[in-house]
Amino acid sequence: YSGPSYIPSKTFSDALLQQLDVESLTQKISDYTMRRLGEEKLALVEEILKALRNSLGDDALLEIEFEDLRQRLRNIRDDFRSNRISLSKSMDLATEQIRQFIDSTEAYLQNNNHCKDIIVRRLPYLKHAVEMKKLEPTIGEVMALILSNRGDLPPELEEAVVQVRSRMTQLPPQLKQNLMILANQAQMRSDGLQDGLRKLEQEVEDWFNRSMDRSSGVYKRNAKGVAIVLGILLAAATNADTFLVVDRLSRDTAIRAAVSQSANQFLNQSPPAPTRFRDAFPTAGQQPLPSNLLPPDAAAPGALPPDVTPVAPTIEEFEIRRELEDIRDAVDTVLDEIPLPIGWSEKNLRQQFPPQTSLLISWPKRILGWIITGIAISMGSSFWFDLLSKVVRVRNAGAPSSPNDHRVE
Predict the structure, then answer these.
(1) What are the sequence ranges of the domains in the chain?
(2) Which of 25, 43, 211, 237 is deepest in the core (most CB within 10 A)?
(3) What is the pLDDT of residues 209-249, one digit of tens each?
(4) DSSP code, position 353
C-alpha cells in the first residue's frame, strides 16, 4: 500500500481544520458572544425598569413588554444558531430591539412626573450603552485562545476549548506557530468571525502551495545532485573520459583513412587475382548433361548420377580465398588498434596516462573528464536533444514527395 502522491491544497486545509474542529469552536464562541450581548444589555434595561417600578410603586410595570423583548432576543439567537443570519446581523437586530423598547418606554412615561428624573438622567445613558456596538471575536483571538494555556475559560466554552487543545498537541510546534501567523493574516482581511474562518482556510491553502513549491525545488536540487554523483560514478566505473572521447572523435576521419590505406597497401603487395570469379570456378554446368544423367531418385533432387564426380577446387579458387582472409585479418588488426574511447583497455590507459606526462597532470585531467561526463549524463537525453535541435536545427531528412513524382510516363 502506498499513500497518495499528491494532496490538493484545499483538501489539506479542510482536513487540518476539520481535524482540529475549529469551525465548531468558532460557532460556540459566536453563540456565547450573542448570548452574553443579550444578557448584558437586558441587565441594563432591567435595572432601569426596577428604578421606574420603585418610583411608581408598580412592580408589574412593563413586565409583559419586557418578557416580549426577551422572547424576540431568543428568536434572533435561534436564527443565528440555525445559520439564517450572521453574528454581526444578529447583534445589530438585538441592539435594535432593545433600543426600540427604550424608546417606547420613554414615550410611555414622558408625562409622568414621578419618574421624570430617571427618564431625563438615566435613559440617555442607557441608550448610549445599548447602542454601543460590541466587537465580534476574531479568528486570531480564537486561535490565541486555543494555543494559549489560559485557564479562566467560561464554563460554556471550557469543554470545547479543551478538546481542540488536545488535538493541537499532535501538531508540530512549527505548524502551531504558522497557524497563529496565518490566523492573524486572515483576521486583517476578514469581516467577522465566520468570514475569518473562511479566510483562514484560504491562507492555509496558500501556505500549503508555497510550502510544496519550496519542497519541490529542494527535491529537484537534491535529485540533480544525486544524478550528478551517480553520473560521475558511472563515468569513473566505465572510464568514460570526455577529453579522451573528444580527442578520439576528432581523429575519426584520420582513422578511417588509415584503415583504407592499410587495406589498399596490402592489396597492392598481393599478386593480381583473376578478373572474373567465374573463370576460376569451372563447373559441370558449363557442359550440357545428357538427359539420361538426371538423378533417378525424385526424392533427392540434389543427388548426382553415379557416373558424375564433383569438380575439385582449382588453385585460383584457393588463392582468392586466402587473399580475402588476409584482407579481413589486416582490417581486423587495424581496427583492434583503434578501440572505443570508453573502458579500461590498455590502449585507452596509454592515451590517458602517456609516459612522458606526469601523473600530477594526467590524474586531475582524467578526474575532470569523468566529472564532465557525469554532468552530461545527469542532464538527460531530453536536454541534449533540445540543445542539438537548437544548435544544429534538426529537420526531417528529405522533402515530402509530390503526386507528380509517382506519375507513370
Answers:
(1) 7-218, 245-284+311-392
(2) 25
(3) 998 888 888 888 888 889 889 989 988 898 888 888 777 76
(4) S
